[in-house]
Structures are given as C-alpha cells and as structure tokens.
Specification:
Blueprint (H helix, E strand, L loop, with lengths): L6 H8 L9 E2 L6 H4 L1 H15 L10 E4 L9 H13 L6 E5 L9 E3 L2 H11 L7 E5 L13 E9 L5 E3 L4 E4 L12 H4 L3 H4 L13 E3 H12 L7 H19 L1 H4 L8 E2 L1 E7 L9
Parallel strand pairs: 1-10
Antiparallel strand pairs: 2-5, 3-4, 3-5, 6-7, 6-8, 6-11, 8-9
Helix pairs in contact: 3-9
C-alpha cells in the first residue's frame, strides 16, 4: 500500500490517539519551507549557519534569484562560483529550476553562462517568480542501461512533531542512457514519472519506470557493488535519515503546531534524493 493510505491512522496512533485532543488535519501550515525550492534553501542555510554545518555537503551549491527583485538575487555569488568551477576544469553544468514548479516543469540543465543569464532575465521580471540555480550532480549513480534515477521517500510528521521514515520507497528511473552531451534532453536528465511516461521505451527496464527498495538493494549487492563497497541498509538509509532530520530541524519553527489551536495537524512529505556514483546521497 502507498503511505498515504495509512498516514492518518499512523499519525493518530503516534500522537496517542484522538480522545480529547481535537480533530486530525492532514495539512501543516507553512509547509512550503520544505517544498518550494527557494524557501527550502533559505531555511537550510539559516539552520546551517546556526548549527555550524557545511550546507554544500548536504545539498549541491545553490544560488537564489528573486522575481522582481534583482538587487536581492545572488547574481554575483553565482558568477563567482561559475568562474571558480571553470578555472578548476569542471564540466560546469548547472540545473535551473523555478521555485514553485513541479513535475519537472520549466527545469533546464545548462552549461553556458550567457544562456543561463538570458533565461533568468526572461523569467525574473514577474514578482514572486523565483528561481534556483544549483550545481548539477554530474556523476550520478546509474542503473542498468546507464540510466539516471532519483529516490522518493515518504516521511510522516505527527502533531507532536515525531518523524517517521517509511520503510518502503521507490526509485523513479529514466528511460535512456545518461549523457552530459545532451543537456537539452529531459528524458536523459529528469526522471519524473510524468516526463518519462512519454518516452517510447518507458517501462522497458522496470514496470512503470519504478524500482522499489528491495530491488535496489539487490541491484547494489549483485550488480553495482558486488564487493560490498556501497550497501543499502548500511550506507544509503542512514544518509536518507540524516538529511530528513536536518531538514525538519531546520523547518521546525515554521511547521510545529502552535499550542492551543483546535486541531492536530500532521503532514506526509515526499522527499526526493539523488545518489552519486560513490554512494553519497544528496
């Protein structure tokens, strides 16, 4: 069963049942601190500063651009980073994403500074149309056929801010071989289901382009790392848990329910992660 089918019952049990505590509400105010890209980066940055954490070891280097507010946008910081990566001899690929977008919409993978600047200048004229420019994960872990994937993990946050990571999760897989020579091919770079379903080879490798955790664990063990260098339970899962906890600690003051309100709110989040070719989770 998908987690959503059990989320309300799980939240009620975890919070001690429903007697005398007000109704459960499957909505948490200000959840966009974690679900809108600009808000998430701002939230994580503030937490990293407070706690002395190196944010770029948890998420790729990211720069924020604010629609209608060019002065607040991080153009200079991004330019400095672009030059730094170029001087280091990096491939210097970046992924450019609207803050509030979903399903892979309007996302572009780019390596030309002028093209990135032109795209942003076209988009940033509208107040509220915010964007993130993020260093692209150029060396992702690849599945059979040399294909990209991301990991979708479900996380339940209960009314008393207990956090539960579902044991089951899924890899959303690409349909075609990964290559940095085809930056404009969304089938190569974006594994969103609504994109991949349009490819002629959708479902060729996995039904509905989905690989569940037990299949991924077996693939790591039998094909990708038969020497045991990267193992699912030992290496991947602890990183997932750690990143989830950092994000929810960062957003706690926004998400935690205020005392005295007449209901108990819970939220089922869908987290998306990438894994690089060394087994590091981002």
């Amino acid at each position: 069963r998908m987690p959503g089918a059990d989320a309300a019952a799980s939240a009620s049990r975890a919070a001690g049942g429903g007697r005398g505590a007000g109704p459960l509400c499957n909505f948490t105010k200000r959840f966009k601190q974690l679900t809108w890209k600009v808000d998430m980066v701002e939230c994580l940055r503030a937490h990293a500063r407070r706690e002395g954490l190196d944010l770029w070891k948890m998420i790729p280097e990211s720069f924020l651009f604010y629609g209608g507010d060019m002065e607040a946008s991080e153009r200079r910081q991004f330019l400095d980073a672009f030059v730094r990566h170029a001087e280091a001899g990096d491939r210097n690929v970046w992924i450019v994403k609207p803050s509030g977008g979903g399903k892979g919409g309007r996302i572009q993978v780019m390596d030309n500074l002028r093209d990135i600047g032109y795209l942003l200048s076209e988009e940033l004229g509208t107040p509220g149309n915010d964007w993130v420019v993020q260093k692209y994960l150029e060396r992702p872990m690849l599945l059979r056929g040399g294909r990209k994937f991301d990991m979708r993990c479900w996380v339940l946050v209960t009314p008393d801010y207990k956090v539960y990571l579902y044991r089951q999760g899924v890899l959303r897989t690409g349909s075609v071989r990964y290559s940095l020579d085809r930056l404009d091919d969304t089938f190569v770079h974006l594994s969103n289901h609504c994109i991949q379903v349009k490819h002629p080879e959708y479902g060729k490798y996995e039904p509905t382009n989905e690989m569940w955790y037990p299949e991924f664990e077996a693939w790591l063990r039998d094909s990708a790392f038969p020497d045991g260098a990267v193992q699912f339970e030992r290496d991947i899962v602890p990183q997932l848990r750690a990143l989830v906890m950092v994000s929810l600690q960062a957003a706690r003051k926004f998400l935690q329910q205020a005392p005295g309100c007449g209901y108990r709110s819970f939220h089922l989040f869908g987290y998306d992660f990438m894994v690089d070719d060394a087994g590091k989770v981002w």
